[in-house]
Amino acid sequence: MSFPTPDQQEPNEKAGPLTDGDDPVYPGAPLTKGQSLLLLMSFILRHNLTAVSLDHLLKIFNEHFPGMVPVTTYLFRKAYGQYGNYEPHFYCPTCENYLGKNTGELQCDICHTVTDSDSSLKSGCFFLVLSLASQIKTLLEEKQTKIQNDWLNSDTISDIQCGDEYQKLKESGAMGEDDISLIWNCDGIPLFRSSKYQIWPIQCQVIELEPRERKANICIPCLWFGEKKPYMLTFLKPFVDELSILQKDGIKWKDSANIEHTSKVFALICSSDSVARPLLRNTKQFNGFYGCDFCYHVGGGPYTNKDPVPKLRTEVEHFDHALAATLEKTVMGVKGPSPLMRLENFQMINGFVPEYQHSVCLGVTRQLANLWFDSRNHEQEWYIGTKSDLLDKELVTIKPPVEIIRVPRSVADRKYWKASEWRSFLLFYALPLLNGVLLRKFWNHLFLFVFAMHILLGEKVKRCDIDVAERALRKFTLQFEKLYGAANMTFNVHLLTHITTSVRNWGPLWATSTFSFESFNGTLLKYFHGTTHVPEQIVRRFLSWRSLTQKAEKVMADANDGVKKIFAGLQSSHLHSCNSASLNENVRVFGKPCHGTLSPSQSSAVKNLLGVTVSQCVFYHRFIVKGILYHSSSYTNLKKRINSTVELMDGRLCRILSMLVFRLHHVSMHCVLVRELKNTGKLLCRDSELNITSYFVSEVLQSNNVCAVPTDLFYRKCVLIEAKAKNYVIPLPNNIERD
Ligand SMILES: [Zn+2]
Ligand SMILES: [Zn+2]
After folding, report:
1. Which ligand is closest in space to the CA of residue 234?
2. Confidence grade of residue 16 (pLDDT, cut at 50, 70, 90)
3. Ligand that lies nearest to the alpha carbon of residue 97, given by its number in the listed order
4. With 96 labelled, which of 238, 307, 315, 634 sits at a CA distance of 20 to 30 A?
5. C-alpha of residue 100 to centroid of ligand 1, in Å
6. Cα 117 to middle of ligand 1, angstroms
7. Chain-centroid distance, C-alpha 301
C-alpha cells in the first residue's frame, strides 16, 4: 500500500479549476466549458468509469473535436478543479499509537519507535481524514430550507428530535436554536472475498435534516483500512479532535437569504452493531463478563433472565470504571477510557443504541428461524424443519410491494438472507405463514415480538404504546427462556429489554438503525477498481459525488433545457427521468396517458364521489401519492409484485384499479378507482393477559365493490399475503426506511 503518485493525486489548489468555465465550448456552442466538464464528471460517476476508460473516452473525443475537451484524465481533473480535501494521519507501526499528520520524521511517544511519513505511506500505517466541517457546511447550505427544528414535546414520537434525550439538551439550553447534532456509525466492510482486507469508515448524518434527506446525505470524516480492525484510541482521535472544535466554535454557513448562522455540532448517537460498539466504548464484548453495554448483567455466558433485573449503567459510574480500569484488570466490563469521553453531550451509555438491524433482524429473528428449521433441533418440540417445503410454497408466492426490494426466498436459503429479508419475514410473513405450523405456544410467543416491532417501527409512535410494547417484550424475553431453554438466551434476546428505552430516548427504531449506513457501505464498495490505492479511490469518488450538486448549482443554472435534462438523467434513477406529469404537489402520474370510456360501474363510482357523471377520462396505472409509488392491480409489467394494496385514512383497505384524470367544468380533476377489500374483523392473534391483539393484521375477503376515492384519503401502502387459503393485509409500519 502506498500513496498515489502526483499524477494520480487529486489536483491541488495550485492547479486550479478552469477560469473560463462560463465560455462556450466553441463559439456558438449550446453549452459552456463548465457544463461540459460537469456532464462528463456525472457520466464518470454514474457509470463508474475507471481512469483508463476515461482516458480512452477523452482521446476519442479529441480525435473528433480537437481541443473541445481535456486530452487526458489528469488534465480533466485539473480543469474540473478542487472537490474537497483529505489527508493521511499516521500511526506507530509497532504499537499503533497515533503519530499525527506531519510529514518527515515521526516518533512514537509510547514505545519510542522512530519512523517517517514516507515509509508509513508505503507500509500502510495511516488512515484518511476528511474535513467534517466542510462537508456539513456544504450540506447545510444546500439543504437549508429543510432543516427541521420541531422538537416540541408531544405524546407521539416521530423522530429523533422528539426523544427524551434530545429534548433535554434543547430544554437545558445545551443545544441552541442554530445548533445541529449527529448520529454516526463505525463498522468494518470486507472488500475482497479472498482476503482480510477491510475498510472502516466513520459515517455521520445530520439529525436536524428531514429523515430521508438525513439518510441520503452521509458525511465521512475518517476512513481506516487494512487487514486488522482499527485501533480505536488512534482512529477516533482526529474525529473527536474536530468535533471538540465544532462543539465549541461551530460552523459558519449562510442561508438562502444570505444570513450567516453559526451552528455548533454535537455528536449525540452512535448506531453500531454489537461487535463495533464495545471497541468504540473500550469495553468488553457481550460474550465477556459484564459485557452488556447498557446494564450490569453478569454476562460471560447465556443472558438468562435475572430477578431482580440488573441495574442500568450510569454515566457517572462509567467514568469511574474507565478511570479505575488497568491493562490487567477491567472494571465491570470497562477496559479503560475512550476518546469519545472527551465529547460534550455525548453519553457513553445512552449515546449508544441496541440497534435493531443487527439485534432484531439478523439477531433474534434469524435465531428463531434457525431454532425452528435447523435439523439439529429435530428432537425439540419447536422444530418444524419437516414442514419447511410446505411453508416455502406459500412464502415464495408472496408478492410484496416495491418497498421490499427482494421477493421472499426459500427458508432453505436463509443462510443468504439479508437483514431486510429477515425484517420482512418478521413483520409480514411469519405470523400468517406459521399459523398452525408452529405449536400454538411458540406461535403465541412469536406474536409478542412481532407486535412490539410493529409499534416501535411506526412512523409515529405514541408514548403510551411504547409502554405496551415494553410489556410485550418483557413477556417475550421471560417466556423465551422457558420455551427455548436458558442456553438459547443470547445477548440479542437480552438487548430486547433495552430497546424500548432507546425509542423513548431517540425516537422510533427506523430513526436510529444502521440500515442506511450499511446501505452506504454497499455504495462505497462500488467506488474503486482493482486492488491498489483503494481507500484513496473511495475517498476521491465520494468527494466527487458530493461536489457534483454543489458545482451544479452555479454551473447548471443557465444551462439550456437539453443540457439540464441530460444532467438530471445522469443524476437520478430511471423513474424520475421517464415520462411523468404532476397533477398537484402530492400526486404524479407515470407512463403514457391512456384515453378511454368509463364502464357503468366505474362511472357510478365516480358519481358517488363527486355527484356528477363522467364518461370520458384518462387512465394511469402508475403514480406517486405523497411520496409513495403505487401500481394498479392491472399493471402487467410488474411481475412478482402486488403494489396496489392501500389503507385509506378512514381505515378501509383496497386494491387500486386505476388513476382517473378528467376535466370537469374546464378544471382538471383526478381520483382513484379501487376495489374494496372487505375486512372480516377476525383477529389473527391476541394475548388476553396483556390485552393486546394483532391489530396490524387484517383478514380480508375480495369484494366486487368498486369505489372512487380522492388521493387525499390515501394513508399507507400494505402487504397482501395469501396463506392457508386466506388473505391478510399488513401495512408497512413506516414509509421512511427502505431496504
Ligand atoms: Zn509505538
Ligand atoms: Zn443489559
Report:
1. 1
2. very low
3. 1
4. 315
5. 12
6. 14
7. 32
Co-location of 369 and 328 in the same domain: no
On the question of pLDDT at 6 being above 90, the answer is no
**CA 521/CA 411 separation, integer angstroms:** 26
What pLDDT sits at residue 548?
Answer: 84
CA of 89 to the centre of ligand 1 (A): 14
Domain span at 606: 586-731
Shared domain for 329 and 366, answered yes or no, is no
Question: Ligand 1 centroid to 114 CA: how many Å?
Answer: 8
- Match 383478514 to its residue by C-alpha cell: 699
Cα–Cα nearest to 661, from 728, 713, 708, 629: 708
CA of 275 to the centre of ligand 1 (A): 25
Rounded to the nearest whole angstrom, what is the distance from the C-alpha of residue 111 to the centroid of ligand 1? 4
Give the ligand with the smallest distance to the CA of 91.
1
On whether both 302 and 373 belong to a single domain, the answer is no
Render pLDDT for 223-249 as a digit per residue (tens, 0 to 9). 999 999 999 999 999 999 999 999 999
Nearest-angstrom CA–CA distance, 299 and 333? 9
| Whole-complex ipTM | 0.96
377: DSSP letter: G
DSSP 77-123: HHHH-----EEEEEE-TTT--EEES-SSEEE-TTT--EEEHHHHHHH
- 644 belongs to a structural domain: yes
For residues 627 and 687, membership in a common domain is answered with yes
Ligand 2 mean position, distance from CA 199 (Å)? 29
Tally of domains within the chain: 3
Distance CA 474, CA 162 (A): 24
Output the CA 272–ligand 1 centroid distance in Å: 28
Extract the C-alpha cell encoding 554: 452555479
* CA 303 / ligand 2 centre spacing (Å): 9
Distance 451 CA to ligand 2 centre (A): 22
Distance 518 CA to ligand 2 centre (A): 25
Residues 326 and 368 in one domain: no
**How many Å lie between the centroid of ligand 2 and the Cα of residue 498?**
7
**Residue 680 belongs to domain with CATH number:** 2.30.30
Instruction: Please tell me the distance between residue 324's alpha carbon and the centre of ligand 2 in angstroms.
Output: 21
Q: How is residue 553 annotated by DSSP?
A: H
* pLDDT per position as a tens digit, 462-494: 999 999 999 999 999 999 999 999 999 999 999
Return the ligand number nearest the Cα of 501. 2
Please give the grid coordinates belonging to residue 300: 460471560
- pLDDT at residue 739, as a whole number: 73
Domain end, chosen from 512, 542, 567, is at 512
Asked if the structure places residue 305 within a domain, the reply is: yes
> Are β-strands 180-186 and 265-270 bridged in parallel, bridged antiparallel, or unpaired?
parallel
CB within 8 A of 138, min separation 6: which ones? 546, 550
| Residue at 256 is within a domain | no
How far, CA to CA in Å, does 171 sit from each of 153, 348, 631? 10, 21, 45
Ligand closest in space to the Cα of 494: 2
388 lies in the same domain as 304 = no
Q: How far is the CA of 108 from the centre of ligand 1 (A)?
A: 5
Residue 90 Cα to ligand 1 midpoint, Å, equals 11
Ligand nearest to the CA of 352: 2
* Chain segment 48-97, per-residue pLDDT in tens: 888 889 999 999 999 998 888 899 988 888 888 767 789 999 999 999 99
In the reported structure, the alpha carbon of residue 428 is separated from the centroid of ligand 1 by a whole-number distance in angstroms of 53
Which bound ligand lies closest to the C-alpha atom of 291? 2
Answer with the one of 474, 490, 512 that is the final residue of a domain: 512
Same-domain check for residues 327 and 391: no
Residues 416 and 331 in one domain: no
Residue tagged 433472565 (cell numbers)? 305
Q: Which of 109, 384, 154, 130 is nearest to 242 (CA)?
A: 130
Q: Does any domain span residue 240?
A: no
Check if the beta carbon of residue 97 is closer than 8 Å to that of residue 111. yes
Ligand 2 centroid distance, CA of 474 (Å): 13
